[in-house]
């Protein structure tokens, strides 16, 4: 919503906003743009008399300001609806969807278009390190957007991405997630197919050819151009690390973010960029300079030869691929995994049984249990001495510091701030 507010301001609108617990860096970014921030949801904000209230999906019935808006009959819209009607409608939209890798792939694709001189507008669900902000509006015909499958608003239970009407769409992967709003995998597949069946015939879908769930989803019907990546019959990498497609060999893929999942992300971005006329050679040049996204395998610091990473992984598949990617990046060192099961799905315990297997390649796992509503200790008991559970951050930091040795990578995984544990770890490791 902060990115949306920035785009609305750039479009020339006067924008105010409200939320609970507004804090930096978003609060300071918005204030710098001249966007007034109001703490809380007091109904008195109706006195502002805006032309439209743009409602985020954190707002529910019972919210005092929302109730006042409904009672007064004021005009309101969801964020995705407003964005399409006022920004996306007449642009070439490149949408990036999938359970994993959306933010990184969106940032890669935006970076490629920027490198090629297309000056794209964009909205990324994270902080790209190649750009100063997570959203911008330009005069360009091209707009790159992270296309999320989460629901739109309390009054619109379709996935957000249905509103964006992309002409180029990446479908990265599809797994069960968001157990708080989706009862099963089939319900998520149905939302992805809503996206597919609203795309025109001259649109192009770039799809992960290795993903059986996406294959099943497209089997419900597909009316657009289709290109696959990750398989020999589509965009792939040969044994020499070169990109190949349609029998043609392009240059070597060189990226600064580790892991097979990031190579797949790069192939998808490269294929999508080709749809808007960017040659694979230019895209490969751009990807070689890609800096990554904050909180996606972000190196926060190195002390005494011990690396501390911050990552957003909070799904068993993402956890497993992140651990594997770090091992491949530093094959001679150990990986100490630090996990906070904080997402709505994780707090519900829907995927708790899969967590020990997802961490099998970590040399030791530390689990912080404050947010979970299930028995963390018994869940990780099968890992024996290779996993320990903790309920106090300071004690957790001490345990990690005592275990870590030069050459190790400490991988902190959470979709929240985790009590500032990254800096606490770096400070503790710096002590004699």
Task: Write up what this structure looks like.
- The structure is a single chain.
- This protein is an alpha/beta fold.
- Helices cover 33% and strands 22% of the residues.
- The chain is built from 15 helices and 22 strands.
- It has helices at 2-10, 26-32, 64-72, 79-88, 102-115, 185-197, 212-218, 260-275, 280-288, 316-329, 344-348, 355-358, 376-380, 393-403, 421-430; strands at 16-19, 36-39, 53-55, 76-78, 92-97, 121-123, 135-136, 142-146, 151-153, 156-159, 168-171, 204-208, 225-229, 236-237, 242-245, 248-252, 298-303, 306-311, 335-339, 364-368, 387-390, 409-413.
- It has a seven-stranded mixed β-sheet, with helices on both faces. A six-stranded mixed β-sheet has the order 17-18-22-19-20-21, sandwiched between helices.
- Helix 5 (102-115) crosses helix 8.
- The longest helix has 16 residues, at 260-275.
- The chain starts with a helix and ends with a helix.
- The mean pLDDT is 93.
Characteristics:
22% strand; six-stranded mixed sheet; 432 residues
Query: What Rg do the Cα atoms give?
Result: 22 Å
Helix content: 25-40%
Structural class: alpha/beta
Q: End-to-end span in angstroms?
A: 44 Å
Strand fraction equals 15-25%
Unreliable spans: none
Tally of individual helices: 15
Mean residue pLDDT: 93
Q: What can be said about the biggest beta sheet?
A: 7 strands, mixed
- Find the count of extended strands (DSSP E, 2+ residues): 22
Strand order of the largest sheet: 7-6-8-5-11-12-13
Task: Characterize the overall form.
Answer: globular
């Amino acid at each position: 919503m902060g990115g949306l507010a920035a785009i609305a301001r750039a479009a020339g609108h006067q924008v105010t906003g409200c939320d609970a617990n507004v804090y930096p860096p978003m609060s300071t970014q918005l204030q710098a743009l001249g966007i007034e921030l109001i703490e809380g949801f007091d109904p008195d904000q109706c006195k502002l008399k805006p032309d439209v209230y743009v409602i985020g999906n954190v707002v529910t019935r019972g919210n005092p300001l929302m109730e006042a808006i409904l009672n007064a009959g004021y005009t309101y819209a969801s964020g995705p609806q407003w964005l399409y009607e006022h920004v996306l409608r007449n642009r070439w939209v490149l949408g990036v969807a999938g359970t994993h890798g959306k933010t990184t792939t969106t940032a890669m694709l935006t970076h490629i278009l920027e490198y090629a001189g297309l000056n794209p507008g964009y909205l990324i669900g994270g902080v790209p390190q190649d750009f100063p902000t997570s959203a911008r509006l330009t005069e360009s015909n091209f707009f790159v957007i992270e296309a999320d499958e989460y629901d739109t608003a309390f009054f619109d239970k379709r996935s957000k991405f249905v509103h964006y009407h992309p002409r180029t769409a990446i479908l990265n992967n599809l797994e069960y997630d968001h157990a708080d709003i989706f009862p099963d995998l089939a319900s998520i597949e149905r939302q992805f197919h809503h996206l597919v069946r609203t795309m025109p015939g001259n649109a192009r879908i770039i799809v992960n050819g290795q993903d059986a769930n996406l294959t099943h989803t497209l089997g419900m019907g597909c009316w657009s151009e289709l290109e696959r990546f990750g398989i020999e019959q589509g965009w792939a990498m040969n044994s020499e690390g070169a990109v190949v497609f349609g029998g043609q060999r392009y240059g070597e893929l060189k990226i600064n973010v580790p892991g097979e999942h990031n190579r797949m992300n790069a192939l998808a971005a490269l294929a999508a960029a080709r749809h808007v006329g960017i040659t694979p050679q230019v895209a490969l040049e751009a990807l070689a300079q890609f800096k990554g996204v904050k909180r996606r395998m972000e190196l926060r610091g190195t002390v005494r030869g011990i690396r501390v990473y911050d990552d957003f992984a909070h799904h068993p598949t993402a956890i497993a691929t992140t651990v594997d990617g770090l091992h491949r990046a530093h094959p001679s060192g150990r990986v100490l995994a630090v996990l906070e099961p904080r997402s709505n799905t994780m707090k519900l315990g829907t995927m708790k049984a899969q967590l020990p297997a997802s961490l099998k390649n970590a040399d030791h796992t530390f689990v912080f249990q404050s947010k979970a509503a299930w028995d963390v200790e018994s869940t990780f008991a099968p890992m024996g001495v290779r996993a320990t559970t903790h309920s106090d951050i300071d004690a957790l930091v001490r345990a990690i510091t005592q275990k870590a040795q030069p050459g190790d990578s400490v991988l902190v995984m959470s979709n929240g701030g985790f009590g500032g544990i990254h800096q606490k770890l770096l400070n503790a490791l710096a002590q004699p």
